[in-house]
Amino acid sequence: MIEQEWAIILARIQFAFTVSFHFLFPAFSIGLASFLAVLEGLWLKTGKGVYANLYRYWLKIFAIVFAMGVVSGIVMSYQFGTNWSVFSDKAGPVIGPLMAYEVLTAFFLEAGFLGVMLFGINKVGRKLHFVATLAVAVGTFISAFWILSVNSWMQTPVGFEIAANGQFMPGDSWWTIVFNPSFPYRLVHTLLATYLTTAFIVGAVGAWHLLKDKANPGARKMFSMAMWMAAIVAPLQIVAGDFHGINTLEHQPAKVMAMEGHYQSYPDGAPLILFGIPNSEDRRIDYAIEIPNASSLILKHDWNAPLAGLDTIPDENEPPVAIVFWAFRIMVGIGFLMLGIGIWSLVARWRGKLFEWQLLHRFALVMGPSGLVAVLAGWVVTEVGRQPFTIYGLLRTADSASPLDAPAVAASLLAFVVVYFAVFGMGVWYILRLMKKPPEAHEAPPSDAPIRSAGITPAAQILSGDGVPGDARSGEVV
Fold it and tell me: In this predicted structure, what is the pLDDT of residue 444?
């Protein structure tokens, strides 16, 4: 029995490790694909070479991030068959078709246009290339749509019937399954998180180069666009998070109790615990710093609304409080820091100092990886808060694992750790090298006249980076 428990723990650690790596890359690539589409659209509309420079700059980074996301996702999916075969057997009739839709729609769309996006600028027209970029951006959204639908159904399962053999079978309407109660909230919350993640990475790169050369037009443009995104999306994300939290309270109350650190029920209004140390043994938060009744105001929009605590949940159904409690505070804390830098950038922009205030640039540089940390913390809240279930309230994690021995799971986990840090570590190192190189400092408006010797337009060569008279790479304006 002890060895079986260790096998389940190791299988959970292995899945958490691989999905954490995988989640980082789509969190960046989804937002970056949209950013590339905006850059190319602005270039086509304005003819300004700075947008073409930035498109080419971030396209190389996108290609590597996208590739690492695909590779890590393929490896992760095999664990459904190796470590979680019971879950796959029982939930397969529901989640299998949804994941197949992701492949048939999103992956095929991305794969079909990715080559044109990366290599086709000299072979197709400018508008067709823009269509390819848009298709890849839309494909990343569709991929997120289906994956989040699957995961949301595991959080709030509806529209199913349980067969005699214990399998979850789809009911009369697939729409009920796809658009399950938590899915719309989680889709909006996650997509906004990917846009903020990309914005702060782009902003950090822009800030890095502004600190070295504040006159660089590419650095100025990317930093300005990133700060606009932070100023606009960060408050929207806070509002979306509030709606998501209220929905979670309705459908997964134990998760919210762990997030809030509410071991006990509060009949006359629950406090908002800002910080403290969860003490599950004594069922309290030690050294708590709290705001009276504020949790009731946030969750119920009523200062004196009663809130139930974990004392109403059977002990065997409680999630691990400490992990959920701290991960939630990391996510929320980063969210308010993002809001703060967004407001700061608006003040700097209003005073005409957006590219002058080095303290703002240094803070933006430090905040570069904050989006990645926030999405990981949010994932921990979502997944650990669902425990001890894989399908909330219906299928326990302990009953979902494959009958494997602990040494076998430990060996594969060790192999994953070694290979992942080696392969993806090199990938991240190369991405950082690309980011360290400054964007081109010169630009030239593209001409619509064809180049006789090449048979293509200078506009195409600006995106491809070919050295021609007046292109964006050579720095010679004719």
Answer: 47
Break the chain into its structural domains and give their ranges.
Answer: 189-396
Kindly report the pTM of this predicted structure. 0.88
- Per-residue HEC secondary structure of the chain comes to CHHHHHHHHHHHHHHHHHHHHHHHHHHHHHHHHHHHHHHHHHHHHHCCHHHHHHHHHHHHHHHHHHHHHHHHHHHHHHHHHHCCHHHHHHHHHHHHHHHHHHHHHHHHHHHHHHHHHHHCCCCCCHHHHHHHHHHHHHHHHHHHHHHHHHHHHHHCCCCEEECCCCCEEECCCHHHHHCCCCHHHHHHHHHHHHHHHHHHHHHHHHHHHHHHCCCCHHHHHHHHHHHHHHHHHHHHHHHHHHHHHHHHHHHCHHHHHHHHCCCCCECCCCCEEEEEEEECCCCEEEEEEEECCHHHHHHHCCCCCCECCHHHCCHHHCCCHHHHHHHHHHHHHHHHHHHHHHHHHHHHHHCCCCCCCHHHHHHHHHCCCHHHHHHHHHHHHHHHCCCCEEECCCEEHHHCCCCCCHHHHHHHHHHHHHHHHHHHHHHHHHHHHHHHCCCCCCCCCCCCCCCCCCCCCHHHHHHHCCCCCCCCCCCCCC
pLDDT tens per residue, range 382-424: 999 999 999 999 999 989 888 888 888 888 888 888 888 888 8
Give the percent of the chain with pLDDT over 70: 91
